[in-house]
Write a structure and sequence with these properties.
Helices cover 37% and strands 18% of the residues. By secondary structure, it is an alpha/beta fold. Strands 1, 2, 6, 7, 8, 9 and 16 form a 7-stranded mixed sheet that branches. It binds flavin-adenine dinucleotide (FAD). Flavin-adenine dinucleotide (FAD) binds at residues 9-15, 31-34, 36, 39-41, 43-48, 127-128, 151-152, 186-189, 198-199, 202-203, 206-207, 237, 336, 358-360, 372-376, 379.
Amino acid sequence: MPSHDVLIVGAGLAGMRAAVAVPSHLNVGIISKVHPVRSHSVAAEGGINAAIRDEDTWESHMYDTVKGSDWLGDQEAIEILCKSAPEDIMALERMGALFSRDPEGRIAQRNFGGLGFPRTCYVADRTGHALVHLLYEQLLKRAAKVYEEWYVTSLIVEEGQCCGVVVMNLFTGELSTIGAKSVIMATGGYGRVYLISTNGLINTGDGMAMAYRAGVPLQDMEFVQFHPTTLKSTGILITEGARGEGGYLFNSRGERFMSTYAPSAMELASRDVVSRAEYEEIMAGRGVDGCVMLDLRHLGKEKIMEKLPQIWELSLTYAGVDPIEAPIPVTPGVHYSMGGIPTNIQCETPLPGLYAAGECACVSIHGANRLGGNALMETIVYGRRAGEFASAYAEKAKTISYSDQAFKQQQARIAALMSRKEGERIGALREAIGTIMAEHFGISRTKERMEAGLEKLAAIRKRIPNIVLQDHSKVFNLELVDALQLQSIFELAEVTAAGATVREESRGAHSRPDFPNRNDADWMKHTLAYREESGPRLDYKPVNITKIPPAERKY
Ligand SMILES: Cc1cc2nc3c(=O)[nH]c(=O)nc-3n(C[C@H](O)[C@H](O)[C@H](O)COP(=O)(O)OP(=O)(O)OC[C@H]3O[C@@H](n4cnc5c(N)ncnc54)[C@H](O)[C@@H]3O)c2cc1C
């Protein structure tokens, strides 16, 4: 069986940045269920935050991030991000990143929500595309072994130590194991637990679910970000850069309604605040066909085509609206997972040998609400750190040895799916879970609504073991992959719902009309969900506060 010093699951920005950070004398492998450049990172639009100007400081970036997190982010981790960001941006530039420029020829920066300084670096509105291709080149240069279109089904854990993964080669359907001295999870978010999302179809949270099944708790999963501007009926993201470049939001009366909710920051308040404002406008009957309007017309054709060409194209193609001529209909949509696999600042999870970085991890930069532009920076800073720390661990680790127990378990799991003759179809179950999450655990969460949602999820739990497949072939059996993903989606939905229902406060993205205020005395703590046979068991741990004491959040 193949083995590596460092094995990375996931080839988005976090995974590839980690691979590139592994020193050349170590043997690194990286696995992805899709070709690396099709990872969701490629879809990132608006940009990446770093305090690179003399007039800006990492302290100010840190303050904005802590405030954005509604004081649930861990400050030591945030400090590392904000201090490292400028150097990490320069490292990307030295690798060849073609950031957009200002008239003086410096890396241009735009305004983003919740920032006290325009510090979002960008490549037009295709920042993720540019960075993913850049790091893919670096990955090839680093000569890492890439297992492309291989699907990891579980971790191998023996004697309390993570020592590899069980994986299916999608080309052949063959199941095998890959050993490793250290494993890094970089599997991205779980936006697809909800029916409609800005996320790619592949964002099913597999890595979080695998860690959860291996006994690692999941942290702060009730904090799911709703982005304020997704294109009507499609879930397609309209970047915050559109407001950063000066776009306005209007209701059906033609009012710039953000003046009521965030009089100073207006459209550039943090995402939770803007999404909630839109929701309230729509609920109060001041929406337009269930949307609000994003107006870019005053920016003019030249600026739109230079700074937001993709937004122009998406809006025209998928909504039939030319933003140069007319406002774009937008609504809040599921976008980002603030929670994930808990790690310390060395990217270590509670399971020895297992590291995590990027959207699947929760080192807790974002706390209860992420600022736009900070996720990409996290993939780069913490992806690099995960590569460095997992390498140091691998250097000291002994040889790799494990039994065939995990392999046999996964073989049995797949055999059970393949052999069942009748039962539940995947599509129906997936739609049911996505709908429950959207209706009961959305932007506005009341006790009654969430408890009803929990009951519906309990009914789904009984149906999950009956999944039936129609495709029994071995080669590229994507229905089998869907079935495995569905099992992950369900468990993550349960964890999200459980954490949300008991958190009796409103903080960041978790908003409860029945508990409208933040409650630091009882709830300034991270949720940890442990897997038990009957469902998640919740526990809590303190928030790390070093520099910025809790204060009221106003924009
Ligand atoms: C439309 C959109 C626009 C965004 N724009 C911005 C932005 O402008 N700025 C910003 O800061 N953030 C943005 N974000 C958020 C940011 O892009 C993501 O948080 C970040 O790119 C995630 O990177 P990642 O490396 O953690 O995961 P991903 O890029 O999602 O990669 C996950 C990897 O894991 C692999 N994988 C998953 N499961 C398995 C498995 N079972 N077996 C094998 N491989 C597996 C996948 O194949 C993939 O390679 C945006 C997000 C979206 C959806």
